[in-house]
Fold this sequence. Notes:
Blueprint: H1 2-10, H2 15-45, H3 49-76, H4 79-103, H5 107-135, H6 141-191, H7 202-207, H8 209-221, H9 224-254, H10 259-286, H11 289-307, H12 313-327, H13 329-339, H14 346-371, H15 377-397
Amino acid sequence: MTKHLSQNLKLFSIPAWRNLVVSCLLSNISIGITYILMSWIVLKVDNQVSSVAILMICLWTPNVLLSFFAGTIIDSWNKKHLLLLSAVLRCIALIILSGLAFINLSTTEIYSVAILFGISFSIYSPTTIAMIRDIIPDDKLIYANTTLNSVYEVGLLLGTGLSGALLGLLTIPGALVFTSVIAIAATVFTWLIPHQHSAGKLSESMNYMWQDLISCIKYLAGSKFLICLYIAQLFIMAGFMTAPILLAPFAKNILHASAAEFGYMEAMLSLGVVIASLVNPYLIEKFNNKTVLIMEILILAISFAFFSYNKSITLALAYYLFAGIGFSVWAILLTVAQQHTKASFQGRIMAIFNSLSGIVILAFYFIIMLTSSYVSIATMYWLEVGFAIATLSMVLLNLRKIK
């Protein structure tokens, strides 16, 4: 176990990795705080599940519309500049939201700012993953991915944990200003990343965007194994990004939780991911990828199944901790997929599947909007169980090829 932790720490001798990790940590702290604040404000203004669903639709629609074409740009342009663009957009969105909060926030204004956040997110994730391939050797990817997964979740953990305290100490406008400062600090560390300019030019990217996209699809079509790996990631991402929309009304209306307790539940999910991400490299070496994947996906499915019947805040915290352990399989699936993907296609492939996951997530939100008056929130949690089972099926279908 100590050996694996030392491998993670050795990566920090790489300056680009060091600054990228700090940037991602600060970015996710700001994202965690912003998510809790925006969800709670929407519920405060309009206490409807459909309102939170609309918020999430605004966040994910830009991802669906832009990601298909973002991939070829990521593979051709300077990734550092793209991360900077994403960070600046996030700062602008937070500053606008902070200013509006001092006057009077409406759901329409929140939805409008959420679209700007969505544009930022459509660039952020696939660019970060593509940059990892540029700065980390392939044999160290598992350490990089589990470290970054932990950093993402530590950031969200700190963000969601801080959100309750910030609401109590600073009120909503003050909390948003505080979050803006963190986002600006993340932008500074992104700027400090030393990174070589990627091959390709703007004119070439625009002229050959369709050809690049088609060549990527042809590359994927040649490997059913690779398609299954990225689809499995898609289901995990869809489950991770849709669980919050169910938790907000479930916590408020069934568990009768406060804003702080809602934040703690989200924090437990992140804590579970962090714990599992630290332990997973050791477990993979002791057993293998397939064993760890199967066990943790089963933990995920069982946790949400039990949670759907739960009415205790204490048990809710425990179930969400175990669900977080299950969600940590994303880093394992990503590593296996990266090791079977040509680096020159990495940005495009991640962007395509980000877009597809966005479509699945949007469909989920629309289902909630249309059925929230007829189907209970507790019953809807079985959709999360469905995502876990779908992921497990992808793994089982390719069990012989996963080492």
